[in-house]
Amino acid sequence: MWALHGAVAGMIVWTYARTPPRRLYRSRRGGLSRAAVFANYPTAVAAIAALPHAAHRRIALIALPLCATVAIPGVVDEGDLDARWRNAPALAGVVLAIVAGERASTRTDAGDLRRALAALPLMCLSPPWLLAGLGFQTSGMRRPTPGEPGVERVHIGHHEGLDGVLLGLDALLLSRRRSGRWHRRLLALMLAYGAAVAAQDAWYEQIVKPGHAARRLPDVIRPAPTPAWAGLIASVPLVRRLAIG
């Protein structure tokens, strides 16, 4: 899990350092700044799910509230994706979560086939975001967004859809370690949430922007008392049974 997030963070630093700021989406301070925001969301969210497996429990207990600050409104603002001091607590929480390490625990290989099948659709959604994250675009990705002439259909740089893919993969990877019932429910919710975020972004970029449909999928990025979030929570038992175990 940490390797996946580290690879994406490295990709962000590399691409944002060599791309003119005017071509980046709401980020002007370079790769390290954008990577710090990425460490807040989605990495701090993933860190919370990893903490029950920590080898050093005291460090994990300090990391938990720090990582949880990412849920405070305004800490991660889609309108301004440059790092601010408000991002420091969650960033420190991620560092502590890594320092806390991983205790020896029983790994379960049972269910790896269903985990792979659950990961497959997430992986199928990710190529455009991986290309954009590496600084490359096809001609279709470069087309302007209807209603936003200055924004390309799939802009260069990091996308929230890839955040969703990462969170889904994180949940599947963490589910390979034995853990308690409530933790596995959390992983099921994390998988459902990540899939919904990825589907929402993919639908908007690949279906709505080209004009194939007018209606967007419900926004689920921030927890809210909405029908979409009620559906996510209601899906937890099924997702746990089919993918998490």
Your description of this structure?
With 245 residues, this protein is mostly helical. It has 2 domains: 1-104, no CATH class; 110-245, no CATH class. The chain has 11 helices and 2 strands. Helix 3 (57-68) packs antiparallel against helix 4 and helix 9 (181-208) packs across helix 11. The longest helix is centred in the last third of the chain and has 28 residues, at 181-208.
Short characterization:
The chain contains eleven helices and two strands, in the order H-H-H-H-H-H-H-E-E-H-H-H-H. With 245 residues, it is mostly helical. It has two domains: 1-104, no CATH class; 110-245, no CATH class.
Features:
245 residues, mainly alpha, 11 helices, 2 strands, globular
Oligomer: single chain
Distance between the termini: 19 Å
- Number of H- or I-type helical stretches: 11
Strand content: under 5%
Biggest sheet overview = 2 strands, antiparallel
Strand order of the largest sheet: 1-2
User: What is the general shape?
Assistant: globular
What is the succession of H and E elements?
HHHHHHHEEHHHH
What Rg, in angstroms, do the CA atoms define?
18 Å
Which percent range fits the helix content?
Answer: 55-70%
**Helix/strand structural class:** mainly alpha
State the domain count.
Answer: 2
Could you list the spans in which at least 5 consecutive residues all have pLDDT below 50?
A: none
What integer is the average pLDDT? 93
Number of DSSP E strands = 2
Task: Describe the secondary-structure layout.
Layout: H1 2-18, H2 31-50, H3 57-68, H4 88-99, H5 112-125, H6 127-133, H7 139-142, E1 144-145, E2 148-152, H8 160-174, H9 181-208, H10 227-234, H11 236-244
Antiparallel strand pairs: 1-2
Helix pairs in contact: 1-2, 2-3, 2-4, 2-8, 3-4, 5-8, 8-9, 9-11
